[in-house]
Design goal:
It is an enzyme of class 2 (transferase). The protein is an alpha+beta fold. It is built from 15 helices and twelve strands. It has two domains: 105 residues, Phosphorylase Kinase, domain 1 (2-Layer Sandwich); 299 residues, Alpha-Beta Complex (Aminoglycoside 3'-phosphotransferase, Chain: A, domain 2). The strands form four sheets. The chain has a five-stranded antiparallel β-sheet, sandwiched between helices. Strands 8-10-11 form a three-stranded antiparallel β-sheet. Strands 4-5 form a two-stranded antiparallel ribbon. The structure holds 5-S-methyl-5-thio-alpha-D-ribofuranose and magnesium ion (MG).
Length: 416
């Protein structure tokens, strides 16, 4: 019964779902449908009616970025639906409200986020978001903590792992594109300009780098710590100056918390490095670039505070050790253990951030922060900076004990 929907067919479909028709108001002929597909894999439409609007997202049987030559299973929308519900329970309005799920057509309908922009667009245009760091920290801490064994009984945690274990096609994309393809000659790889040919070749010959990437791939494959977003970059976040919403959960699965941490860190750094390419004498970007790094620091600091508070208040899961530490000395040991947990998460996140930075330069999926830099040489300079820091983060994450170690290194890379 599956068929991909088109602009012309959507009003007829939505008219058959009473609560969506009521939300839109008026008659189907009055509804305006716009295709707004922006991500790499699915198709997305906004539908506007006289009384309201909705957003329709549907799986295609292939990767949209590439086309029918790269077939992809349709099930990803079910995992996105499940993840939206689960993360919505913990992070509330940081994720969009689900209005409808159609298992036959492999589609979901969610609230339309208006007047939100994709964060990557906003940051590439130099817009500041004063609440971004706190909102991202809150979303990430809640979505990870409440789906982990720190909060859940063993049975519930294992049921969660089982519910998402079949999102294998999407995990396979990441396994290949993040941890493997950038380190070999591969037909999907591409980069901006011949100026990067030498760096790409160095990456393929770099034994410590390839060992670090392959170890991280095993960590990604073998860890079921929490329900991840699974593709948490600035293109999966929609914002206004007041609001922050996390979208595009089609890669959701139980994996290492550090994968989400590292992905977000990488894309904030990538935007920082792109600012040099957008800077002009009339509109310099130094101050904006500093804001980006301040946001990184504020985000991680707020994440730690929130995660520790959640652990203190809701740490009743099978993996929480607090019942063993009831004496005053025990409480001190427990606090140290919690800080060590976050330190390990940070350093693993640093390594994942390194892998993400590298694959966004040499792999198939690039980002508009860098692609919008019109001058190819300036762009290649920014990209080489991503590679320089990315390699160091991936090979020597232990050098970056704190978030300020990373932001200082990013500044040093730019200063040369
Ligand atoms: C086929 S392109 C897939 C990439 O786009 C998504 O945003 C993910 O990052 C994935 O690696
Ligand atoms: Mg996406």
């Amino acid at each position: 019964g599956y068929e991909p929907l088109h602009v012309g067919g959507l009003p007829g479909y939505l008219a058959g779902v009473a609560h969506l028709a009521a939300r839109l108001g008026g008659r189907p002929e009055d509804w305006r449908v716009q295709e707004v597909s922006d991500g790499n894999v699915n198709q997305v439409f906004r539908v506007h009616g006289p009384d309201g609007d909705v957003c329709v997202k549907q799986s295609l049987p292939y990767v949209r970025l590439v086309g029918e030559s790269w077939p992809l299973t349709l099930e990803r929308i079910h995992f996105e639906h499940l993840a939206l519900l689960e993360h919505g329970r913990h992070a509330g309005r940081r994720v969009p409200e689900v209005l409808h799920h159609d298992a036959r057509l492999f589609l979901i309908v969610v609230e339309c986020l208006t007047p939100h922009l994709i964060l990557r667009e906003g940051m590439t245009s130099g817009i500041r978001y004063p609440h971004l760091a706190r909102h991202l920290a809150d979303y990430l801490a809640r979505s990870l903590f409440f789906t982990s064994s720190l909060a859940l009984p063993a049975e519930a945690k294992k049921a969660g792992v089982a519910a998402f274990c079949a999102n294998t096609a999407m995990c396979r994309i990441m396994e290949d594109m993040v941890f493997t393809e950038p380190y070999q000659v591969h037909p999907r790889n591409r980069w901006t300009s011949p100026a990067l040919d030498g760096l790409a070749a160095q990456v393929r010959e770099d034994v410590p780098l390839k060992l670090a990437a392959s170890r991280l791939k095993r960590h990604y494959l073998d860890t079921t710590e929490a329900l991840l977003h699974g593709d948490l970059h600035t293109g999966s976040i929609m914002v206004t100056p007041e609001d922050t919403r996390i979208i595009d959960q089609e890669f959701a699965f139980y994996g290492p918390m550090a994968f989400d941490v590292g992905s977000l860190l990488a894309h904030l750094l990538l935007n920082f490095f792109s600012q040099g390419g957008h800077s002009t004498a009339e509109a310099p970007r130094e101050s904006y670039a500093s804001w980006v790094l301040e946001t990184v620091e504020a985000w991680w600091s707020s994440f730690q505070d929130t995660f520790l508070r959640l652990w203190e208040e809701h740490g009743h899961g099978a993996g929480d050790p607090s019942a063993l530490f009831t004496t005053p000395a025990g409480r001190v040991a427990l606090q140290a253990e919690r800080r060590a947990y976050l330190q390990r998460l940070w350093e693993q996140g640093v390594a994942y951030a390194g892998a993400e930075l590298l694959r966004r330069i040499f792999g198939l999926a690039h980002t508009l922060d860098l692609e919008r830099i019109a001058d190819v040489d300036r762009r290649a300079t920014c990209e080489a900076r991503c590679v320089q820091l990315g390699r160091s983060l991936l090979v020597e994450p232990g050098r970056y004990r704190s978030v300020s170690d990373v932001t200082a290194a990013a500044r040093e890379v730019v200063a040369g």
